[in-house]
Design a protein that fits this description.
The structure is a homodimer of 491-residue chains. By secondary structure, chain A is α/β, with parallel strands linked by helices. Helices cover 40% and strands 19% of the residues of chain A. At the A-B interface, helix 8, helix 11, strand 16, helix 13 and helix 16 of A face helix 8, helix 11, strand 16, helix 13 and helix 16 of B.
């Protein structure tokens, strides 16, 4: 019954009416909590709280409570179920009979908890096969759609808003998502989120197909513990990668990690080498750390793809340039040599400029080469020369943030935006300094102008390395398409 | 004349009287700026501003201005020189004649800037050889001593205080130091800092000898671009490592990094393999990134050395446990199996507990196993069992920070301190969540109780891996000492 059609998941993300089935006790982790979240983030569809004792509640956040989905006359295309596990199969069956197409089963206590739970989960899978209903979960926090305020993921409630943007996150656990990066302080641009949970039905293949077609999503980031169907996954991933980048954190790199992953999901996994080869073959960007999973996508979202991997870095101190050069090599970037024209022009800015990394520290502290009205005139002169160089595909600019400089940030951000926007090169900014709050403020202002800022140098450079990697994938896909056209060969 | 005696550097860090020679214009990067910093951080010694036009200034921050060091009758044991490069050799010569033992030459424009500068720097080296005066620099920001407020490093001025603590930082550029990590928001525990600059005299060997003897310093972190004398460096490093851990970020890991390093320092370097082997041989902890240089020392400072590399992790979600297990393997840690007694006791806390990584998420969301008065009772019961296990040497505890939880932090921090303090195991805390400000607040409170907190999971675990590595170094040194005693063999 699973047609594996991307549009299948539409009801999970764009439902007109949502039944939320479970306890209406005013605490988190209940149906009440889900409804509260949806109201808070301004969900634009209808909400139908479902509880056996509707008279006890009257209404919840303005929505009338019903005792059963069958009592609701209007269209319901999504049901969210948070009830004790033994009750779930019957409720789900009832939803399917009612014609509800999509069900998110949030309840825990299924395959992840032992034999009894596994038997209950098999019943859900059976309902899927018999009725064609689609189930996300069980053991999931559900979904986020930043476009319509559909937010079922409970931990999201610490934030006051969701920054609507182009990055989709898909995870196998609701505790891993952009709601676990500092969203309130420094908004993270999200399109959709999805916690697949135990995957009794909807799995990574469905979500990849859906996100490939989703016009709001420009980059997909995925936390993956296992894959249910290898060939299908590869096809879906390959299809998505042809259209947008796919960043994957796959756990189980090490033996210990594989053991921990298996114990968490209860699933059998193949060896990491197989996953690694498969991810490489489909052109996915495999990242290795929690931080990279969130941070790499931002450069992919905000910046043009670099034409190649030739990297430049502009620093305020030579010591950092050497650290950046090591990081670039580790990220697969080549620290480029400038053209002789650029070398000449740089040396006209300041005699010791000309090589890459570009250390503008001496120029900045030299009063002769500095304009008194702009303490960053060395940046002003250097950035266009570096980004305009034919040997440069991408660059990191480092910037020292101090509290004393905060009043200057709007001017600096304007300048950085103005100097970088006309080059089709991937640029990001590494911020360092004495004050984390100052760095956050600067990062926020830069992001508003489409300049991704990082508090970690290595991650900033890694993000450019990943962008260059994806650029190579894209151009090899193009070459392959072109050769197909020329030879008429479809393989 | 260089006796390479650790106590040689005492005048650089504990001078009774300091002459600061240079412009008294009220801007940063002048003698005025240095004096301002020293006053601000409460330097306890005497300060003598030296300027050819004393009548122009009268006094600077309460210190009378002199036209020449010879006019000062009192003891001067340190001079700080920030004058135009061509004037420096004569000034330094004058200081040496005056009997001043230590000179910090802050001025730029020596070997790093070309031929002329290199000639000037040779004059300084010549003065050292002839007179026995010790020179730090040129092209240095100088020193910090948190114990007496001697702060010559200009960029430090964005901070209002220095957190006095046990970590010494030594760098080859003043732009790399703990004044470039968010010190004001989350104080970094510093004993001494030192920017070696161009190393015309004082070099890494001197500073290692000094810091080995310094009772305030318990961990040494070093940014290194090159080494002047390999065998001497190895001896000094080996001597230090026998007493305290040495964390080194050596740039030039890659070809591009080596080229950038050479161009920055103007020095010839050996191949990275040689450095790597040497650092390994002396038992230094080599780290790879900017962040690791600051973050690894904190676990070494605050926590006992683990007896071995057997690692446990307690998380709020199984997905993170798997990520942590991969990170542990990468950091050289073994994700341990608990003893059968611990497995039994954990399963009594909650049926699904017992394996490592320890996922307390299900126990926390299960109302039966939770106390209503303490939402963290699952942590309360689990931590002592995990840390008490004979198979566990070190552990990371992860904690989700939300703004809503801030009022609970004092209680949580009390609890974490109480539950961890009686085990001689290395423990650190990884904080994640929605609010960076909440995470910072929690980190600050934890650090006050001696629990190092991290905002990056991989760095937290890497720090434990480094602690386990150093523990192995220490025990092999002990074994070697013991075998020497037994055999009477001195080699």
């Amino acid at each position: 019954m699973n047609s594996r059609n991307g549009s299948d998941l539409r009801a999970f993300f764009q439902p007109a009416g949502v039944a939320v089935i479970g306890s209406l006790r005013e605490v988190m982790g209940t149906a009440y909590g889900v409804i509260k979240n949806m109201r808070r983030f301004g969900f634009s569809g209808a909400i139908y709280p479902i509880n056996p004792n509707p008279s006890k509640y009257g209404d919840v956040f303005g929505s009338k409570v019903y005792s059963n989905v069958n009592e609701v006359a209007q269209l319901i295309d999504l049901a969210v179920v948070i009830t004790p596990p033994p009750t779930v199969p019957e409720i789900v069956e009832g939803c399917a009979r009612r014609g509800i197409k999509a069900i998110i089963v949030m309840s825990e206590g299924f395959a992840e908890s032992g034999k009894e739970g596994a038997a209950l989960q098999r019943k859900l899978a059976d309902t899927v096969l018999r009725t064609g209903v689609r189930i996300m979960g069980p053991n999931t926090f559900g979904v986020v759609n930043a476009a319509n305020g559909l937010v079922t993921i409970p931990p999201y409630t610490d934030n006051d808003k969701i920054e609507r943007g182009g990055i989709a996150f898909c995870s196998q656990t609701g505790s891993i998502g952009p709601h676990q990066v500092p969203l309130d302080d420094w908004a993270y641009p999200v399109s959709k989120m999805c916690d697949l949970g135990n995957k009794c039905d909807v799995d990574e293949v469905d979500i990849l197909n859906y996100l490939a077609d989703d016009p709001e999503t420009r980059v997909v980031a995925m936390h993956m513990e296992d894959v249910r169907n290898g060939p299908e996954f590869m096809e879906a991933a390959r299809n998505l990668v042809a259209r947008k980048p796919l960043v994957v954190l796959k756990t189980g790199r090490s033996e210990a990690g594989a053991k921990a992953t298996a114990s968490h999901t209860g699933s059998l996994m193949g060896s990491d080498q197989i996953y690694d080869a498969a991810l490489r073959q489909v052109g996915a960007i495999r990242v290795n750390t929690w931080q990279e999973l969130w941070e790499v996508p931002r450069t992919l979202l905000y910046q043009p793809l670099p034409a190649g991997n030739r990297f430049a870095v502009i620093t305020f101190t030579g010591g950092q340039g050497a650290i950046a050069a090591d990081a670039a090599s580790a990220a697969g970037l080549a620290v480029t040599d400038f053209t002789s024209a650029t070398v000449r022009k740089l040396s006209e800015v300041f005699p010791r400029l000309g090589s890459n990394p570009v250390d503008i520290g001496p120029a900045m502290s030299d009063s002769r080469s500095q304009s008194s009205s702009n303490p960053f005139s060395a940046l002003e002169k250097t950035i266009p020369l570096v980004l305009g160089d034919d040997n440069v595909d991408c660059a990191t600019i480092t910037f020292s943030c101090g509290k004393q400089l905060v009043p200057l940030y709007p001017m600096v951000v304007d300048m950085l935006h103005r100097l970088t926007k006309d080059f089709s090169k991937a640029v990001n900014i590494w911020l360092y300094g004495t004050s984390l709050s100052a760095m956050q403020e600067m990062a926020r202002q830069l992001q508003e102008r489409g300049l991704p800022a990082y508090l970690d140098l290595d991650v900033a450079i890694k993000a450019l390395g990943c962008a260059a990697y994806y650029s190579r994938i894209k151009s090899s896909l193009r070459d392959w398409e072109n050769s197909k056209k020329r030879t008429g060969n479809c393989n």
